Amino acid sequence: MNLALLTRVRRQLAAQAEPGANRGRTRGWTHRSAKADIVKALCAAGAAPPDQASLLQLSAALSDDLVGAGPLQPLLDDPDVTDVVVNGTSGVWADRGEGLQPAPVRLDRPETIRALACRLAAAAGRRLDAGSPYADVRLPDGTRFHAVLAPIAASGPYLSFRTHRSKAFTLTQLVEADTLTASMADLLLRIVKARLAFVVTGGTGTGKTTLLASLLSHAPKEERIVIVEDAAELAPDHPHTLTLETRPANIEGAGAVDLAALVRQSLRMRPDRIVVGECRGAEVIELLGALNTGHEGGAGTLHCNAAADAPARLEALALPHGLPREGLHAQLVAALRVIIHLRRNGTGRQVAEIALIETGDARTRQLTVSTAWTRHGPGPSAGILERLLKERNA
């Protein structure tokens, strides 16, 4: 293949994808329309129309520039890949469960990366340009996509993709992957059946959403689960789930719908369980209120480094929105007792601890977190958890 011609056509296609250059087309490229646009780009690049064989060859090389995530699409299609990041022209990295590793994909021009980012954002109905230099969207296949353009991104553009699994892992699969021990899986299943509220904690990329989806899949099939998320990622294998997704403000700064508002709306939807995909602000207050007013079995995820840090993280989220510390502690002990903490190590993602939130010293009224179970077996609070489960006939 003529590499010089390929490069000229690719640049022409990138120019067509720039916002304003062909706005209607950037929203709806298909494999069929891609072929027509490649021919147009050939003409604009000053090349004679190729014969059928050459056109097919060019289409195969260039259609990914118009459809999907371009040259990154094969990585996103890999079932082992969970994350793909683009560090400007410095390189592409992919995570297959063992941390980010360099990927054999080259994106040599900032203009090419920018065109790809703008096209993906436009396809999701979001603006991405000099006036709005970052975007966080969900792509049609469920992949979560984030982009930051230069000059905000000093040597960008920077792109981040979090792939979407359309069906939750089973607990058996998580045991086989060494995410859980068999004893932990049995205990977590009892927690779900007992309708004990729980929060899944851990750092970025530890598998919180994956585990939460798997656990929700084991909720009784007659229950109605309402899920509230910033970007729809949870996909439990359950016949009665509904997802509410936040909405950012429009270009005039109006129309935003946040997580807290959606939690309030979920209360009107006759839920058996309310789930917040990721607790990060005022929605913590709404969720705790719901858990304390008859909506048992709720769940969510929370970023923190250790199970013992969960109360402090919840304080940091709730106190700025008017819930006093004493009120927060009272609601936590009454409704949200169980913490499931994940961590990453050299072999992958693992549940490190199942812990309980308890009241500490009566004088200081500080909350404590005690271990109920680890990968090695029962911990100091195993008896308390067992009592809670037996009280609910689980």
Automatic annotation (TrEMBL):
- Family named by the database record: Belongs to the GSP E family.
| InterPro entries (UniProt xref) | P-loop_NTPase, T2SS/T4SS_dom, T4SS_GSP_E_ATPase, TadA-like_ATPase
Q: What name goes with this protein?
A: TadA family conjugal transfer-associated ATPase
The organism named in the record is Glycomyces niveus
CDD domains to which the protein is assigned, alphabetical: VirB11-like_ATPase
Q: Which SUPFAM superfamilies match?
A: P-loop containing nucleoside triphosphate hydrolases
Going by the entry's taxonomy, the superkingdom of the source organism is recorded as Bacteria
User: Which Pfam families has this protein been placed in?
Assistant: T2SSE
Location of the Bacterial type II secretion system protein E domain: 68-344
